[in-house]
């Protein structure tokens, strides 16, 4: 693969927006995605561990975390759509080469997640089928490893042709994995899974702290486990992050930045763990989102450096300002974001007591506004279409 | 051009079709079910029928477990399977419509998060608030349909986009409006089947059954009738002339496609009629599952037909199914690739068009001519045809070996001559590459025929 060939693989249509915007959206939405994905894995592992323990607190914790894992899996997949979109805009040569090289695994990714989700749901509904939970975990880990390999393979353009056609004979079956790095996979999946679990357990203890039907002893237990998860996450991230730095990091000339990030994340959460309390759960969440952003930036920097060696810069991606599509996106966001906030407010209010609870009148008015915004979007959508049709009538 | 993934056992295009139809089934059920449930919830509130909430809870749980999340997942699954099987095709869509998909992502979040809120707040918030969540779900789910219809229609009828390059012209394309309304109507028929399935889970004498089953029958039949009429009298006439021509060619749309569609429509119609005339029979699970299965077959036929009548292109009038750009596209300064590849050669021009060195130096220069031919055939033909034993389960998909064998073309010279003619078919583009490269292709295809039909070489 020559630098000229790599650049020629970019889509000739160009990006519909300045590539920096696509890059920012890629990193930010990746943070949301990985937060839910690692929450799903961390809470499922905690749930399976809890099912094996006889103590009542562990049994209760298992129920909570398995339910959390179900919802986090659904949200993780949904959140993953956005980074999947933006990576294709500015990194299409790397992404599509990876997806075709590992065609079988790329295609099996969603069936693996879907089956994993179904098994997870069965575990949630039946409560005590740990075996089903282990199958779900294996499937979700397979999906995680696939995604990890797809991202990793894109970092090595100089190896793509040899991977595809060893000895000059193309292998079109797509059955092999390429580009994986086990320390990176372990740090970013298991390390972050433990950290995400810790953060979510703290949020749970914070949310239920005023509920009289939830025993304070259980909440204290949850808080203790959250601290343990944060400590474990820090250790895993630190140890495997360093291993990542001295394998893939060194290979790409980035050993120092990767090692620094690993040490910062590990140190930060190891020191924070004993002080992490339910009352300060929102602060811990903010800290964690900041850390995820840092890791997201590190990943992005690694990708830019690896492809930059071949003369590829995402920021030099040809582009046009496609105003029609931007208008569509912004208008949809203006309608959808308030509605999402409203749904979160309803959920928050409904859990305030054992019997449920109504949102405040202000929130209800916000809900009415949300419905009007959605109807307004439908009018916008149809009106825009009619405008385009009428404009094209004379052409 | 990217590496080629042919598929494993099953052809990659067949895998895409399976995932896509599963997505259509789940997502169509979802969209209309939200409206159906909103209506039932209003009925429960307005007419004081709290027992209808039992139906709603049962419906919401299944939507939460299956339809919403699996619908969204299989939607993503289409992306994944297409990025593996036709990356430049999806890349064209992404570089035009990324922000439309990103807009759809907002609706996905409301769908997946909202159905969880809807389910977990039954009886925990006041009924008016709950009904409002139901309405939000219905509007957001409709938003997902509204957006994907524009992108799907673009592939078959890019319309003014070919002149302007504006995404809005491609989105609101000539088949956009009929497809939007036809799909919206037809999905009520699928949702009606779903409603019957949910009703069958309630106890036999539950009063909700008596309310929901006939309602599903009425709503579903109206949706089916309106949808089929819109397809026949608005969608089909709106198709580009090329696509209408292919609709009548049995080489492209085999009779079995029409049979599947007719069977699907008939099975759904009969089941919904039963819901009106013999409700107890209509909620027999075997009946509903059979109807769903036939509906799946019908959808498979319909979606495959929609894909087939676009041949030989993945984006009609812009990019061929084998991912080669066929025309200059002035609005974005894109150059057609065909003439360059014909002059310079595919093997010299494309980074993944590689072949091993020849064991004996010959006319292929340093390359093994048969293996070079394999690379070229895989690049140009494998998006629609089985071109190796990798994807030959049950004979494979439009297996080239079988097609040549059927026509009695088992030797390279015959195959070479035939390759020169295929551009004359309305559903094929001419082969691309230098004359020498076409020779290699013919040599590989001869080997392929003999691999599949050893008796062809024995009888020589």
Structure in words:
The complex is a heterodimer of chains A (395) and B (460). With 395 residues, chain A is mainly alpha-helical. Chain A is 77% helix and 0% strand. Chain A has 13 helices and no strands. Chain A starts with a helix and ends with a helix. With 460 residues, chain B is mostly helical. Chain B folds into two domains: 7-239 and 253-308, Formate dehydrogenase/DMSO reductase fold, CATH 1.20.1630; 330-458, no CATH class. Chain B contains 19 helices and six strands. Chain B has helices at residues 12-46, 52-85, 87-120, 127-156, 161-164, 167-171, 176-200, 207-238, 241-247, 255-277, 279-282, 285-308, 338-344, 346-349, 369-381, 400-406, 412-421, 435-452, 454-458, and strands spanning 7-8, 10-11, 313-315, 319-320, 357-362, 365-367. In chain B, the strands form three sheets. In chain B, strands 1-2 form a two-stranded antiparallel sheet. Classes of the chains: A mainly alpha (395), B mainly alpha (460). Chains A and B meet through helix 1, helix 3, helix 4, helix 5 and helix 7 of A and strand 1, helix 1, helix 2, helix 3 and helix 4 of B.
In short:
With 395 residues, chain A is mainly alpha-helical. Chain A is built from 13 helices and no strands.
Q: What is this structure's SSE topology?
A:
The complex is a heterodimer of chains A (395) and B (460).
Chain A: H1 3-8, H2 19-51, H3 56-90, H4 92-101, H5 103-126, H6 130-153, H7 160-164, H8 182-207, H9 216-251, H10 255-272, H11 281-308, H12 323-350, H13 361-393
Helix pairs in contact in A: 2-3, 2-6, 2-8, 2-11, 3-4, 3-5, 4-5, 4-6, 5-6, 8-9, 8-11, 9-10, 10-11, 12-13
Chain B: E1 7-8, E2 10-11, H1 12-46, H2 52-85, H3 87-120, H4 127-156, H5 161-164, H6 167-171, H7 176-200, H8 207-238, H9 241-247, H10 255-277, H11 279-282, H12 285-308, E3 313-315, E4 319-320, H13 338-344, H14 346-349, E5 357-362, E6 365-367, H15 369-381, H16 400-406, H17 412-421, H18 435-452, H19 454-458
Antiparallel strand pairs in B: 1-2, 3-4, 5-6
């Amino acid at each position: 693969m020559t630098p000229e060939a790599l650049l020629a693989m970019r889509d000739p249509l160009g990006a519909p927006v300045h590539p920096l915007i696509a890059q920012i959206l890629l990193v930010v939405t990746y943070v949301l995605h990985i937060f839910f994905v690692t929450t799903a894995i961390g809470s499922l592992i905690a749930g399976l561990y809890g099912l094996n323990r006889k103590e009542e607190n562990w049994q209760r914790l298992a129920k909570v975390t398995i339910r959390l894992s179900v919802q986090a899996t659904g949200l993780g997949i949904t959140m993953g759509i956005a980074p999947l979109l933006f990576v294709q805009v500015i990194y299409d040569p790397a992404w599509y080469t990876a997806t075709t090289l590992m065609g079988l695994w790329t295609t099996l990714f969603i069936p693996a997640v879907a089956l994993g989700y179904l098994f997870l749901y069965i575990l949630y509904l039946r409560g005590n089928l740990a075996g089903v939970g282990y199958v779900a975990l294996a499937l979700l880990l397979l999906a995680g490893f696939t995604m990890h390999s797809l991202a990793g393979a894109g970092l090595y353009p100089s190896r793509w042709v040899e991977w595809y056609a060893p000895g000059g004979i193309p292998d079109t079956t797509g059955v092999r994995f390429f580009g994986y790095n086990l320390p990176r996979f372990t740090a970013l999946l298991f390390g972050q899974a433990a950290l995400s679990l810790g953060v979510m357990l703290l949020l749970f203890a914070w949310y239920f702290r005023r509920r009289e039907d939830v025993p304070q002893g259980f909440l204290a237990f949850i808080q203790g486990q959250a601290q343990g998860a944060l400590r474990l996450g820090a250790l895993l991230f630190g140890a495997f992050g360093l291993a990542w730095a001295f394998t893939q990091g060194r290979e790409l000339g980035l050993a120092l930045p990767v090692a620094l990030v690993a040490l910062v994340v590990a140190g930060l959460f190891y020191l924070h763990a004993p002080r992490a309390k339910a009352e300060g759960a929102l602060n811990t969440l903010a800290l964690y989102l900041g850390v995820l952003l840092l890791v997201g930036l590190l990943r992005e920097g690694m990708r830019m450096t690896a492809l930059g060696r071949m003369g590829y810069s995402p920021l030099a991606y040809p582009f046009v300002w496609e105003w029609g599509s931007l208008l569509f996106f912004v208008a949809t966001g203006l309608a959808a974001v308030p509605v999402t906030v409203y749904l979160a407010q309803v959920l928050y209010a409904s859990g305030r007591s054992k019997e449920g609870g109504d949102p405040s009148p202000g929130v209800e008015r916000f809900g009415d506004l949300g419905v009007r915004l959605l109807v307004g979007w439908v009018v916008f959508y149809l009106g825009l279409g009619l405008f385009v049709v009428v404009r094209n009538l004379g052409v | 051009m990217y590496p080629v993934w042919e598929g494993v056992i099953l052809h990659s295009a067949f895998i895409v079709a399976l995932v896509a139809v599963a997505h259509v089934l789940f997502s169509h059920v979802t969209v209309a079910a939200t409206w159906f449930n909103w209506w039932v919830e209003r009925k429960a509130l307005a007419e004081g029928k709290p027992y209808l909430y039992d139906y709603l809870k049962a419906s919401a749980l299944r939507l939460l477990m299956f339809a919403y999340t699996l619908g969204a997942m299989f939607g993503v699954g289409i992306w994944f399977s297409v990025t593996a099987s036709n990356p430049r095709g999806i890349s064209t869509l992404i570089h035009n419509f990324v922000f439309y998909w990103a807009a759809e992502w907002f609706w996905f979040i409301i769908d997946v998060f909202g159905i969880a809120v809807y389910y977990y707040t039954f009886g925990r918030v006041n009924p008016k608030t709950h009904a409002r969540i139901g309405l939000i779900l219905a509007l957001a789910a409709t938003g997902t349909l509204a957006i994907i219809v524009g992108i799907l229609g673009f592939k078959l009828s890019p319309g003014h986009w070919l002149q302007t390059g504006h995404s809005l012209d491609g989105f609101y394309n000539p088949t956009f409006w009929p497809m939007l309304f036809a799909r919206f109507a037809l999905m009520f028929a699928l949702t009606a089947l779903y409603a019957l399935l949910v009703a069958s889970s309630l106890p036999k004498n539950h009063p909700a059954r008596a309310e929901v089953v006939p309602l599903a029958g009425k709503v579903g039949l109206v949706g089916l009738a309106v949808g089929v009429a819109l397809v026949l009298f608005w969608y089909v006439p709106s198709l580009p002339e090329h696509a209408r021509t292919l609709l009548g060619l049995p080489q492209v749309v085999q009779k079995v496609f029409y049979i599947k569609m007719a069977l699907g429509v008939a099975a759904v119609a009969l089941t919904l009629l039963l819901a009106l005339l013999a409700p107890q029979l209509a909620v027999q699970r075997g009946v509903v599952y059979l109807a769903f299965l036939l509906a799946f077959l019908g959808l498979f036929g319909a979606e495959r037909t929609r894909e087939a009548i676009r041949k030989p292109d993945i984006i009609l009038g812009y990019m061929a199914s084998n991912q080669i750009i066929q025309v200059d596209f002035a609005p974005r300064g894109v150059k057609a690739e065909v003439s360059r590849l014909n002059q310079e050669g595919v093997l010299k021009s494309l980074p993944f068009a590689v072949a091993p060195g020849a064991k004996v130096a010959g006319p292929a220069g340093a390359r093994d001519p048969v293996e070079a031919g394999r690379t070229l055939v895989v690049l140009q033909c494998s998006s629609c045809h089985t071109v190796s034993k990798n994807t030959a389960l049950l004979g494979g998909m439009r297996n080239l070996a079988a097609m040549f064998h059927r026509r009695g073309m088992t030797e390279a010279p015959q195959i070479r001559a035939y390759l020169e003619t295929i551009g004359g078919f309305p559903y094929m583009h001419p082969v691309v590459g230098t004359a020498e490269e076409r020779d290699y292709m013919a040599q590989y295809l001869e080997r392929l025929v003999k691999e599949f039909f050893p008796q062809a070489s024995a009888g020589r």
